[in-house]
From TrEMBL:
Coiled coil: none
The protein's name: DUF7282 domain-containing protein
Transmembrane segments: 636-656
Alphabetic keyword roster: Membrane, Signal, Transmembrane, Transmembrane helix
Residues in DUF7282 domain copies: 21-133, 137-248, 255-366, 371-482, 487-600
Region (Disordered) location: 605-635
Species for this entry: Haloferax gibbonsii (strain ATCC 33959 / DSM 4427 / JCM 8863 / NBRC 102184 / NCIMB 2188 / Ma 2.38)
Length: 659
C-alpha cells in the first residue's frame, strides 16, 4: 500500500515528473542494524530513506534513521537499508523515496538542511509507506561437521544484547529446557559472526540443532533462562515465534579444508574454513608439494587451532610470495600435543597432515600477488576513515572513493588518500579526508600503486597516468562498506579576547549542541574543561556558530569543539549539570566527535582582528541564507520545505494501523 503526504514548496513541474514513484514497506522484525523495503520505484534514480515516528512530531530531518545506497532508475525489490543507529525499540517507521538532486549518489538531505535530495512526489505529495518494525534478533547457522563438543553459529544480530543458545530438535516437541545443549557467552547488541558455542551436552550422532537468540532480560549478562524456569532471559521473538534457525551437526573424524582463489599482498592468505577433529594447524604449501617437495614447499602455518570448525583462518607466510602461484592449504595434526607446529624441524616425525582415504587433506587455488584491502561497516567523524587492513606487494597507498565511483567518476570520487605505505601489512590505517563528508554512505577503499616511486599520490593530478590501482582478476583491489556519519565538527585557528569562539561548521543529524572544551579534556577533565556551549541546534548543518564562553580563555592554547546530543529532548544543554547522564557527545569509531584548533588570546580589545574566520568555508553544503549564529531557526533553508510532512505522516500511520 502506498500513501502520500504533502510536502510544501515542491514545484508543480517536479511533482508531475515524479508521479510514478512508489514504495512498499511491510511490517517486519530486525536485529537492529537493517530494515528491508519490499519494493521501491525511482523514475530518475535516488534513495529510499527510513524515518522514525518522530517525524509526526515535527522532527523531519532528525527522524531520518537510515538511507539506502544509490539506486538506479527503475524498480528495486528487497532493498536492505543500513541504519545509522541500531534500533533498540519496536515502533512505526516510514519509508520514503528520495531523489538524487545533486547527482553525487550520496544522500545529503539532512546535512544539506533539506535543500538537496528531497522526496519524490505524486500530485504534489511525498510518496511514503509505513511499517511496524519489531526490534528483535536474527540468527543463521549452516550445516557443519562437529567434534560433538562445539558448533559455530554463522551470524547473530541482537537489538539489545543477549545470547545464542543451541537447542536440539526436541524443543519443537515442547522440551524447552531439556533441549538446551549449550549457550554462548554474553553478546552485546549488534552483529556477531562465527560465534563458537561450547556444548554442555555433546552431540554424538547426526543431529538437527536449533540455534535460538535469547535476551538478557535481567541485565546481568549471565544466561539464567533454565534455572529461572523461563522467568528471565527468554527468547527474542518475531511474529509471535522465537527467533531461530536450524542446521545439521554431523560428528566427524575426517578433517577438511576449503580455500578460494584470492588476491594478496603476498604476506598472508585466508583459508575459508578448516575442520580439525583433534585440533592442529593449517599449513600453506606452494605447488611444489605435488612434486614431492614436502618440507621445501611450506610457505606458512596458522597458529594452533582448537578441535572443531574454524572459519576465515588467516595464515601469515614465512616469506612473501613474489609472483602469482598455486597454493595448497593442508590440514595438519598436533601429534605431540604441544600446540606448536614442528612438522619440518622434526622431518615429519611430528604434526603430520590429516589424511582421508590415504591422502593428505588439502585444497588448492591461485594466490594472485597484488594487494588486499579489508574494510568493515563502521562509523566516522566525517574527517577521517580507518581502513581495517591493507596488504601491499609493493609500496603504495590506500585511497578512499565515495559512491560516485559507481557512476564512473574515477577521479572526482576520490575523497582522501593515506600517506605512503611501504610494501607489507598495515592495520588500522587512518586516512584524513580532503574535505569532511557529512552524510552516511558506502565508502570504497582502493589499493593504489606508487608507479613513479616518488612516494606521493599522483593518480588524480596525473589523470590516471601515475599511481593507478592494484588489480586482480581484471578489476581494482577494493573493499566497500557502509560508513555512518552522524556528526561532524570543523574549526579554524583563530584569535580573540577569549570570550567567544567561532566554530566553522557543525553537522548534527539528530540536533544538539556544539560545546567548546579546553585542552584539559584530553587529560580526563571531562566536565571541568567545558568553557561554553551553543544554543540548541536543529538537525542539519550550521556554519560560523559563535559561542559565548561561560569561562573565558585567559591564555592562548588549544580548543576542542565537541558535538553533543540532546538526549532528553529538552533543547537545553544538561551534560555538566547532569554529570554526564544527559546530552553526552556524539560518538564515532569509539571516540567523541571533536575537532581541535589553536586559539590566540589577544593582548587588548583593540588588536587588529584576524581574517581567519572570513575564509571561505570548506564544506560543499553551504547556503548564503543559512544562519551564522548558534541560534536555531525554523526559517533556515530546508525547514519550511518539509514542515508540511508532519500532520499527513501522522494520518498515514493511522491508515497503516487500520489496514
Amino acid at each position: 500500500m502506498t500513501l502520500v503526504v504533502v510536502v510544501g514548496g515542491i514545484p508543480a513541474a517536479a511533482a508531475a515528473q515524479q508521479e510514478t514513484a512508489s514504495v512498499s514497506f511491510e511490517n517486519q522484525a530486525t536485529g537492529g542494524t537493517t530494515v528491508t523495503v519490499d519494493s521501491v520505484t525511482l523514475p530518475d534514480g535516488g534513495f529510499v530513506t527510513i524515518h522514525d515516528a518522530s517525524v509526526t512530531d515535527g522532527n523531519v530531518l532528525g527522524s531520518v534513521v537510515g538511507s539506502s545506497t544509490y539506486l538506479d532508475a527503475g524498480t528495486h525489490e528487497n532493498v536492505t537499508v543500513h541504519l545509522d543507529e541500531p534500533v533498540g525499540e519496536s515502533g512505526t517507521f516510514v519509508a520514503m523515496p528520495h531523489m538524487d538532486s545533486d547527482g553525487d549518489r550520496v544522500y545529503s538531505f539532512v546535512a544539506a538542511n533539506g535543500e538537496a535530495d528531497g522526496p519524490y512526489t505524486a500530485d504534489g505529495s511525498a510518496v511514503v509507506d509505513t511499517a511496524m518494525v519489531n526490534a528483535s534478533a536474527t540468527v543463521s547457522m549452516s550445516d557443519q561437521p562437529t567434534t560433538g563438543d562445539s558448533v559455530v553459529v554463522d551470524r547473530v544480530e541482537l537489538s539489545q544484547g543477549g545470547f545464542v543458545t543451541i537447542h536440539d530438535a526436541t524443543v519443537t516437541e515442547g522440551a524447552v529446557f531439556e533441549s538446551i545443549r549449550g549457550t554462548s557467552a554474553y553478546l552485546p547488541a549488534g552483529v556477531h559472526e562465527n560465534v563458537r558455542v561450547e556444548l554442555d551436552a555433546p552431540v554424538t550422532e547426526n543431529t538437527t540443532l536449533v540455534p535460538m537468540a535469547h535476551m538478557d532480560t535481567d541485565g546481568d549478562e549471565m544466561y539464567t533462562f533454565p534455572e529461572s524456569e523461563g522467568e528471565t532471559d527468554g527468547p527474542y521473538t518475531a511474529d509471535g515465534s522465537a527467533v531461530v534457525d536450524t542446521a545439521m551437526a554431523m560428528p566427524s573424524d575426517t578433517a577438511s579444508v576449503n580455500y578460494t582463489a584470492q588476491a594478496t599482498g603476498g604476506y598472508s592468505l585466508v583459508v575459508d574454513s578448516a575442520y580439525l577433529p583433534d585440533g592442529g594447524f593449517v599449513t600453506i604449501h606452494d605447488g611444489t608439494v605435488t612434486d614431492g617437495q614436502v618440507f621445501e614447499s611450506i610457505r606458512g602455518t596458522s597458529a594452533y587451532l582448537e578441535p572443531g570448525l574454524h572459519r576465515d583462518v588467516r595464515v601469515t607466510l614465512d616469506s612473501p610470495l613474489n609472483e602469482t602461484t598455486t597454493v595448497v592449504p593442508m590440514a595438519h595434526m598436533d601429534t605431540d600435543g604441544d600446540e606448536t607446529y614442528t612438522f619440518p624441524e622434526s622431518e615429519g616425525e611430528a604434526d603430520g597432515p590429516y589424511t582421508a582415504d590415504g591422502s593428505a587433506v588439502v585444497d588448492s587455488g591461485n594466490a594472485t600477488v597484488s594487494a588486499s584491502v579489508d574494510y568493515t561497516m563502521k562509523s566516522s567523524d566525517g574527517a577521517t576513515v580507518v581502513v581495517d587492513r591493507v596488504e601491499l606487494s609493493e609500496g603504495g597507498f590506500v585511497t578512499i572513493h565515495d559512491p560516485s565511483l559507481s557512476g564512473g567518476a574515477v577521479f572526482d570520487s576520490v575523497v582522501g588518500t593515506s600517506m605512503y605505505l611501504p610494501a607489507g601489512v598495515h592495520e588500522d590505517v587512518e586516512v584524513t579526508l580532503d574535505e569532511p563528508i557529512r552524510s552516511s554512505q558506502v565508502l570504497t577503499p582502493m589499493a593504489h600503486m606508487d608507479t613513479n616511486d616518488n612516494e606521493a599520490y599522483d593518480f588524480v593530478t596525473s589523470e590516471g597516468e601515475s599511481d593507478g590501482p592494484f588489480t586482480a582478476d581484471g578489476g581494482a583491489v577494493v573493499a566497500s562498506a557502509h560508513t555512518s556519519v552522524n556528526a561532524v565538527v570543523t574549526a579554524m585557528d583563530q584569535s580573540g579576547d577569549g570570550t567567544t569562539v567561532t566554530v566553522e561548521s557543525v553537522t548534527l543529524h539528530d540536533g544538539g549542541f556544539v560545546t567548546v572544551h579546553d585542552a584539559t579534556v584530553t587529560e580526563g577533565q571531562v566536565f571541568e574543561s567545558v568553557r561554553g556551549t551553543s544554543a540548541y541546534l536543529e538537525p542539519g548543518t550550521h556554519e560560523n556558530v559563535e559561542i559565548t564562553l561561560d569561562a573565558p580563555l585567559e591564555e592562548s592554547g588549544t580548543i576542542v569543539p565537541m558535538a553533543h546530543m540532546d538526549t532528553n529532548g529538552n533543547e537545553a544543554y544538561d551534560f555538566v549539570t547532569g554529570e554526564g547522564e544527559n546530552d553526552g557527545p556524539y560518538v564515532a569509531a569509539g571516540g567523541a566527535v571533536v575537532t581541535t584548533a589553536d586559539y590566540t588570546v589577544e593582548g587588548t580589545m583593540t588588536d587588529e582582528p584576524t581574517e581567519t574566520m572570513t575564509d571561505e568555508p570548506t564544506t560543499e553544503m553551504t547556503d548564503e541564507s543559512m544562519e551564522t549564529t548558534s541560534e536555531s531557526s525554523t526559517d533556515a533553508p530546508g525547514f519550511g520545505l518539509v514542515a508540511a510532512l508532519v500532520a499527513l505522516v501522522a494520518a498515514a500511520l493511522v491508515a497503516v494501523r487500520r489496514r
